[in-house]
Amino acid sequence: MSLVKVTIDQIEVEVEAGTTILNAARIIGGNIVPPAMCYYSKLEGSGGKCRTCLVKVAQGSAKDPRPMPKLMPSCRTLVQDGMVVQNITSPEVMEARKAITEFLLINHPLDCPVCDQAGECHLQDLSYDHGLADTQTVEDRRTFAPIDIGDKIKLHMNRCILCYRCVMVADQLTDHRVHGVLGRGDHCEISTHILKAVDNDFSGNMIDVCPVGALTDKTFRFKSRVWFTKPFDAHRECTKCIGKVVLWKKGDEILRVTGRKDKYGELEEFICNDCRFEHKEPNDWQIEGPRKIERHSVIGQNHYEKL
Amino acid sequence: MAQQILLKNSDVPGLASFEVYRKLGGYASVEKTLKNFTPDQVTDEVKKSGLKGRGGAGFPAGMKWSFLDKSTSNPRYFVCNFDESEPGTFKDRHIGQLNPHQLIEGMILGSYALGARTSYIYIRGELFYVLRIIEKAIEEAYANGFLGKNILGSGYSLDLYCHPGAGAYICGEETALIESLEGKRGNPRIKPPFPAIVGLYDCPTVVNNVETIANLPWIMNNGAEAYAAIGVGNSKGTKLISACGHINKPGIYEIELGLPVEEFIYSDEYCGGIRNGNKLKAVVAGGSSVPILPAELILKTAKGEPRLMSYESLAEGGFETGTMLGSGGFIVMDETTCIVKNLLTFSRFYHHESCGQCSPCREGTGWMERILHRIENGHGTMKDIDLLVSISKHIEGNTICPLGDAAAWPVASAIRHFRQEFEDHVKLQKCPLSK
Lengths: 307, 435
Ligand SMILES: Cc1cc2nc3c(=O)[nH]c(=O)nc-3n(C[C@H](O)[C@H](O)[C@H](O)COP(=O)(O)O)c2cc1C
Ligand code: SF4
Ligand code: SF4
Ligand code: FES
Hints:
- The structure holds two protein chains of two kinds.
- Chain A has helices at 21-28, 91-106, 122-130, 165-173, 205-209, 273-278, 298-301, and strands at 3-8, 11-16, 54-59, 72-73, 83-86, 147-148, 153-155, 179-182, 189-192, 215-217, 230-235, 244-250, 253-258, 286-290.
- Chain A is of the alpha+beta class.
- The termini of chain A are far apart.
- In chain B, strand 2 (118-123), helix 7 (128-143) and strand 3 form a beta-alpha-beta unit.
- The site of one iron/sulfur cluster has 14 residues of chain B, from helix 17 and helix 19.
């Protein structure tokens, strides 16, 4: 593979040709990495939708130095040799990101106090970084009643940002997708195929990929705020998946089992429903040790460093 | 009388039948082209003719064809965009309903040039009766050897299908159209890659508008030079304009590009002036998404030159003082029109039709509609007007497909040119034009 040089916020990096701007930025790391609410490196075809990762391409390539006329989604734009990208150094990008954050929030219920995702929610993180202190909307928000999609997963459509990740998980991980996006525009909803329950060995991963609290684990529902639980890396012999998970414990009790997420909130490996929902006894698992939470999110900032 | 390419025989009874169409010289271009032209020569002719896409963006047709990836042995597809759903635009329907064979003839020429063996006409779901007419015409073309295997003994074979959509404006966006044609949800794709490289069933594909394609037979019959001789500047040929609103003679007109706007609105050959002798207030010149212009700027450019019905002249002045020819949906408003109410109608449409994939369009279109609803009904504030401008600015350019821009431009332009009217709504706490 040939290497190409790209400069992001004045930092130069060499990456393989065919890398996206976002992944090049992740190689550099730190605060120049654009936020990504819909892209998921393990899901083919993801990204391009939420527009939180928009960046300015100030120079297209060494060969064709013209700037790109519009802001580009960094998760879906490939780097070119000699490309110059501005993220946090571009006021235009920062303004757009603020606007996108506001768009994502105008129909959001802001029900963090009763949402199981609070503390590990990417929309919460995004709002801390780019949100306004005040709201500019006076109108009612669109509302849906929460529903069960299958016996293990709760859907709060009000909180969904339509990133399509859960649809892609169902398409790419399970043998039959029975849910999808119904309708158009801001009246879209995630829904199951008439009277079908989401019930599949790998469906629980939809919970982990959901960036917000739209899909939550019914077996963990209202058991605890995530920041009062302690995460431990653990594993077991599993015939269906790799069996490497994070246990979220309160005292000796295992309240929740999730996959292991990297610093961008993406699962390292998908896990099966057996591990996720059916093994909550301490002797089901070999504990490896406490898990360090690297995200700069709410849980990261408050308690976890000290755990 | 202006040159007629598309409407020439529309008054002839039975034009939709193969027999009548053939008697009037129909399908001659297919005979001539398959015999005397290689596919690349057809592309060259279309390039030389200067024909631009009539679907809205005005991209040169021949140039688009030349981008088609011919390097692989994958099938190539030629697709006709018959989704026509833009408010104010109703010209393609006319071709499909009255003159379906001219469209089919164009489909054969385009497919031949691009090397497509299977082609599709994707038609708006609401036009079911037109679908029937086109399907019958396709059957006739098969029966007479113009479609199917080994057309006219040339060795070239083509299958043509007409496929109905299910009533979504967004399926007129070419990549959403392709998704829909593949049987999926009509969400626009993220570009690049462009359809010319990765299109229908991931194969190289060209999508063209109905009117673009219906011009091809005339070009092949009469030559590129003859076509390029019609029009003005880089706006070659004729254009169908669907004129509606407060004019005496709404309808579909074929104009030679370059006709002065003033003549189009006021002459008896075309719109026949404003109804009841009223004063012209504003025009949306190219379908609901292009910027609205007040009377003084639609008749004359900011430089004081007469505004012409052409790609360049309508765009003169950029979005500050100009607009776009777009798809040719010409909406005329007289002095009794409330600009805010009209804009609310447009905004409601875009809100309803947003596919919902990307956040700025999904959330912004509804937000703009709700604010406009408030202003029109007397509950708006001065801050709301600036908020509308800022929302439209934050949608524009930040979305996956141009529907976001199409929703933003009408809002930005209406406030740019008619801000006073918005402020009056706020001050009076009602619509100043309501009784
Ligand atoms: C929201 C949206 C709706 C569109 N609807 C249509 C349509 O109904 N008919 C059409 O020909 N082009 C439509 N277009 C433009 C197409 O994407 C495409 O540019 C066009 O079909 C290309 O044909 P042309 O080059 O012959 O104009 C639409 C574009 C957008 C963004
Ligand atoms: S439910 Fe969650 S994962 Fe699915 S589309 Fe909505 S936000 Fe994305
Ligand atoms: S701009 Fe609107 S219609 Fe186009 S992809 Fe985004 S949400 Fe869908
Ligand atoms: S992460 Fe790039 S658009 Fe959503």
